[in-house]
Amino acid sequence: MNRVDIGGVEFRWNHVESISSIDEQQWDTCAGDNPLVRHAFFRALETSGSTGFDHGVVPGYFLLRDRTGTLVACVPTALKWGNLREFGPEITWIQAGLARDCFQWPKFQACSPLFPRMAPKLLVHPQWRSAAFRAGLLRLLIGLGAAEGRFSAFNLMHLPAEDARGCAAEGALISYEQRSAWTNPGVATFDDYVAQLPHRKRRMLRRERARTEALGLTVAVRHGTEVSTALATDFYAGYRAVCRRHGHETWLPPAVFEQLCARMPDAVRIFTVHDGDRYVAGLFCFQNRDTLFVDTWSAPDDVPDLCFEMLCYRPMEYAIEHNLTSIDAGLSSPYKTVRGYRADPVFNAHWFYDERLAALARTVLNLPAYSAGERLLDVG
């Protein structure tokens, strides 16, 4: 164990390769209730074979403990090789850096690997969540990345604005992309929500829902404990078909969805669509006490308008029925925005160990010639 002083208090830190070596309760005390950073989430990725050098993603976990051995902070990290999943606008500076010979793999980052979603990445015990402590933790991580000597940059990916501001104060270059979000307006029913929409959106919604209702399909919402092996197999086949229709291969292995259901059944919701006994489509989601996280779409065949129903309208209806305050529908796209989601910023923070790469990143991302990125954070 290594020792470090943060704000006059001595802590011990280490970095481990498997989440299984970390106490689940202590990790989750730091992580809070966001399902994308819970111990069980990372455990499911490991046990399903989703990560590893062959996948271009090698996970690791930074741990900070007090003198009693209690975990006071933890950070999920990853080393990534040649894997463009999650990079968003960062692909521009990565490609430019490779061309100019000032970026080299692996990429060192704090993230929820393979699930590019907004979530805190500096997971801190409730007793230590001061700005000063978080700043000290950031400086330690930045310094560790520099001391390694083989990294071009250290990134924190997909952060809320508050966390990005803290990173900017520690010299990070901040970039952002858009995510799709929806806030429950406090209505009693989905019909009440529809009634308050502008006429054009209301007419489109009713027309699209009428077409899908005419198909006579059965929609159900299942918790993780209600997902059988057969359903998980059908879901994965539909996910693979969606990937291929969009021209790329799957980045998640067959076991991952079943492992997520088994390890965090309270947080998993799968919206399923059947025509009698025939599986038609599914939507994999996570849920905590106030938010539904819409994630992976599965459909063996492309059914017109069904994805609009299942990725947009049905989650909103579910959120209203279950008194959830919001939906996080992942990275933004026009079809979501026109159907009721808004485009909100989600931030990435970058510290560069090569000044040539830093200058190149500012140029290709069209960022100000200073590191803190205050103007970008105004959008948050």
Keywords:
380 residues, alpha+beta, 14-stranded mixed sheet, 13 helices, 35% helix, 28% strand, disordered C terminus
Provide an overview of this structure.
The chain is globular. The longest helix is centred in the middle third of the chain and has 18 residues, at 131-148. The protein has 380 residues and is of the alpha+beta class. Strands 1, 2, 3, 4, 5, 6, 7, 8, 9, 10, 11, 12, 13 and 14 form a 14-stranded mixed β-sheet that branches. Helix 2 runs antiparallel to helix 9 (256-263), helix 3 packs across helix 12 (355-364) and helix 7 (199-213) crosses helix 10 (306-321). The model is unreliable at 369-380 (pLDDT under 50). It contains 13 helices and 14 strands. The chain has helices spanning 24-31, 39-47, 90-99, 131-148, 161-169, 190-195, 199-213, 229-245, 256-263, 306-321, 334-337, 355-364, 374-377, and strands at residues 2-6, 9-16, 57-65, 71-80, 107-110, 123-124, 153-159, 173-183, 218-223, 268-275, 278-287, 291-298, 326-331, 342-352. The protein starts with a strand and ends with a helix.
